[in-house]
Design brief:
By secondary structure, the protein is α+β, with helices and mostly antiparallel strands. Helix content is about 50%, strand content about 30%.
């Protein structure tokens, strides 16, 4: 491995120590509906994002709220001595990818059939602290 590649790998390793990830796989909701909720909280502080998800009428927001609480719990495991309010946690990255698709047939008139695609998705949520980023700069 070259020097440049090794230095880059070490920087990525250090960056991963400050980011905390939670993932949700095979959610039986279409990715398009889940992306509406994901776009709503991207870049927001954790407390604000939790409030937005709690009072949202979308069904997907319940699952994303649970996922965000899981990411916060992952952060707490490493930082037991720091309070969440002092850390200024925010949703640094959230991505929604298409998952498995169940293909079904629905009967149609005149002996025909229509294909139904029941979509699912994968959600990955990354939480970071703004305090750590300000100390580096």
């Amino acid at each position: 491995m070259g020097a440049r590649k090794r230095i880059r790998a070490e920087k990525l390793k250090e960056a991963k120590k400050t980011d905390f990830v939670a993932a949700l796989r095979n959610v039986p909701t279409s990715p398009r509906k889940m992306r509406l909720v994901a776009d709503m909280i991207r870049g927001k502080e954790v407390n604000l994002a939790l409030d937005m998800l709690k009072f949202s009428s979308k069904e997907a927001s319940r699952r994303v709220e649970k996922l965000l609480l899981s990411a916060i719990a992952n952060w707490k495991d490493k930082n037991e001595d720091v309070r969440i309010e002092d850390a200024n946690l925010y949703v640094s990255e959230i991505s929604v990818d298409g998952g498995r698709m169940l293909k079904r047939l629905q009967t149609a008139p005149q002996g025909r059939a229509h294909r139904i695609r029941k979509r699912s998705n994968h959600v990955t949520l990354r939480v970071a602290s703004k305090v750590v980023e300000n100390q580096e700069n």
